[in-house]
Amino acid sequence: MTSSRPGQARQLRGGPAPVRGTDLLEVLHHAAREARRRLNAVASAVYLLDERGGDLRLALAGGSAPSLYTFPGRMAPDARSATARALASRRTAVLMDPDPAAPDQKQALPYPYAACSGPVVSGDRRFGALTVLRLETSGRFSPSECAALADIGTRLAEALTGLVEDGITVAAGPTPLLAPPEADVDADVVTPGWGVPNAPGSAGMSMMYPLRRLSELLNRAATMEDIVKAAQRWVMSPLGATALVLVSESEGRLWVLGHSGESTSLTRSLHGVGVERRIPAAEAFKGRPLYVSGASSPGAGPLAEDEPRAQVCLPLTGDAQFVDLPVAGSRQVVAVCCLAFSGTRGFPPEERALLGMMAGLLGAAVERVDLTAQQRAIAECLQRHLLPPRLPDLPRLTTTARYRLAGATSKVGGDWYDVITLEGDRAVLIVGDVEGHGMESAAVMGQVRTAMTSYAAEGHRPTTVIDRTRGLLDLLGTDLTVTCCVVAVDTLDGTAEVALAGHPAPLVRRPDGTTGALQAPANVPLGVSPAGACQGREHTLQAGSFLMLYTNGLVGWHAEPEICARTLLGSGGDGGAADLEQLADRIDAEVCASSQRHRDDAALLLARYEGARGQDEPRVSGLHIQRRDLRGVRTARTFVHDQMGAWGLQDMSDALELVVSEIVTNALIHAGSDVDVRLRAFPDRVRLEVRDSDTNPPVPSPLSLAEEENAEAEHGRGLMIVEALADAWNSSPNGQGKTVSLDLPI
Prior knowledge:
elongated, 746 residues
């Protein structure tokens, strides 16, 4: 509130800036206190139109905590509230029970108070409205009470008119002023279980503490798991709840977002239930909190047609109580928080008001996390289509890759990897990193990757590939820089030519377990004018060596990249016996476990050089199955049968045919993508690999599991057969999906 009347300035409690003169404050405070006392209210507030005559802003509020905290700080003149209606109609407006939300709006109205508001109007001057809150159980506002509030509002308007005529600006300040409970003993409400006995105001202040701590944790929440943990600590524990389940609604069904406490049975009763059943949890999505007894638990059954949507009459009876709390986002209810309590329990109005405030905080957090998840899904989808759909293999060079989005961002990055096969049993391995995150980085990455793939496919040496791509990047006119590592491998003699453009050198792990870098001149990143042509260097690989190409996001910038990378590459144990996919999984898990490293996108490309011609070469064959190929499983079985026969391994054909049919069926049904099948025959074993685009791992699901556990493992019951036939199998997620692999001994 501001004033232009000359006078001594003083700092007011609750206001961040000094106010000249005290007349406006005294007038508002006197009117609010009189209204609260005459109408036996728990809180009162004065709303004033802003200086441009638009929204109503809260100028002053007084009463008990937490009721006075339920007043909105600002509201539109056409809002569905008693305050806005009173000003618009110039008559007293009563809101005994919040209006039912429209079915398509799902607005949450969680507070257990009845509101009465009188206009603050004098002639042509419209100042705002005076509003009081009273418990719903206190009964309706009588005509005499409404008349009394209207009289107080009229006298307030006359007093404000006098201030305006004296040159004082009547408007709400930057923050509302709150009258402490000590100023109004009648407004101090004692809530059992909260605060210090016989200490006025202690209960309300104690109830605000978990609200503040909940707000702090939710502000830092990045996942739905973080939200559930915050709710468990500062909603469940302070209120003594035994279980918490957070559910969303999508496509006409309820879906559990998270749960805590003794929530197994409650989760089973809610997950996947159709909203047409009108169970309390589903009804709460209409915007009204429900307080129900054990006989009407959230999943017990539908409400009767004549049963009220909001059961707010207390005390409740039965062995347990349940609260179904609508969790509202910016525009509508985004979830429902179901709380379970053991034994008979009542919910005083102050606790219901506290739950409403907590629901508001949860709603903002759920909406933010859900939006972040959607943005991340879009980024992952875009990144997936910018990366190669599959990695080709040569008989003597096996490859695999991993890609991870940054843990602290949902934006698409500029990291990429690629493998290009050439004539003469040669292959080119590429890993690169475009500066920054966002659409420009992704666009530049797509252009640079396409250029490098084209130049490499033409047979150019790695240094030439970098030089030509540098010239193309200059024509694009971008300010972003690009680092990359290009390695050309001749699988016939083990020659590896390395060229770098400001990128970490690739690492090699030799058959004896030692690691080292394939050093080459660093050169400068693409996008920076070089002093001369790109320089490279040749190396010779030993049979059984592992190559590791990576981006800085894999190791972070806080330590020497080569030292960290060597540590990761050495995590797979003995180099001769380690499996390529398992090694990639170990490195990927190590990166995810380190919050320091996972602040940037990470790309990893691993290759195993099997050896030159003349040694025991692994036999390799592959099959590609279209996503909608109805005969895909039969084709896969035929492929395995024919290939085993060609390799003289007919005795293994039956087991492999059964295994491949189960895995391919699972991939075609649940991944909904193209499927790649690859067979590799080693001297002592045959390896089967099936790749698809779904990153979720298949989970074998014995029928003896509990219903809730089976819901989590609904895919992959056929993998019980795979487990019975194979000594070991592995599922490895990557930037493009996953690879399910297994070995059968010969």
